[in-house]
Amino acid sequence: MTTTASALSHPGAIFTERRTVNAFSDRAVSDADLATIWDYAKFTPTAANSQPLRVLFVRTAEARERLLPHVAEFNRAKVSSAPVTAVLAYDPAFHEFIPTTFPHNPGMKDVLERSPEMREGMGRLSAGIQVGGFILAVRAAGLWAGPMTGFDAAGVDAEFFGDNGWKSLVVVNIGHPAEDGAYYDRLPRVPEDLAALYV
Ligand SMILES: Cc1cc2nc3c(=O)[nH]c(=O)nc-3n(C[C@H](O)[C@H](O)[C@H](O)COP(=O)(O)O)c2cc1C
Fold it and tell me: Measured in angstroms, how far is the CA atom of residue 114 from the centroid of ligand 1?
């Protein structure tokens, strides 16, 4: 499989240049590219190395037709234009893997088993951090991402995750920018003197 990725000009460009994309070209994204994205994203740090995030890569026309009815109308054209859309989900049973992924403290699995509140809080925070890591992994792999929460999560879960119980969090379109209409105007950032304090 060949890679279809484009290189970044410098490391900081992952933040400054590789922006959110809203319309994609028909340039394909290979399964090798998707494997590279996950190879990077899986190293995002998580609490107790718990790794609660899961991903479903929607990459066939049939799968996209199943996804589209659950996407908010204002987001449908974006999903339709993307060669691949990743559904990022949280696995409520993530703690089952703790003895493997946190072997020096396997008892953490039972602590989390006994405390659904702690499990939910820890899992959702770490899954959210992994969502950020995933978006940056798309960019580091030489592609562009369009994250979206404008979709019916319960509908997506019933459509795709009836068997495994995953809970969808964010869908991320993946591909290359269209020549026209890929980017909205850059929106203002919160002023640095408010957002970042130094002591
Ligand atoms: C969690 C999340 C949810 C988002 N949901 C949507 C959405 O439903 N529809 C949409 O068009 N953009 C959505 N966006 C895109 C943001 O509006 C965009 O990333 C932000 O304005 C920064 O744009 P920039 O990368 O061009 O600076 C979402 C982004 C994130 C991270």
Answer: 36
Does the structural domain 18-177 have CATH classification 3.40.109.10?
Answer: yes
Residue whose Cα lies nearest atom 22 of ligand 1: it is 20
HEC string of 155-199 equals HHHHHHCCCCCCEEEEEEEEECECCCCCCCCCCCCCCHHHHCCCC
Residue 79 in contact with ligand 1 by CB distance below 6 A: no
| Ligand 1 contact, 147 CB (< 6 A) | yes
Tell me, what amino acid is at 102?
Answer: F
Alpha carbons within 13 A on the beta-carbon side of 98: 19
42 lines ligand 1 (CB under 6 A): no
Question: 48: which 2 tokens?
Answer: 């107790």
Measured in angstroms, how far is the CA atom of residue 22 from the centroid of ligand 1? 9
To the question of pTM greater than 0.90 for the whole model, the response is yes
As beta bridge partners, residue 53 has 90
Beta strands in 75-143 (DSSP E): 84-90
What digits encode the pLDDT tens for the residues 158-199? 999 999 999 999 999 999 999 999 999 999 999 999 999 999
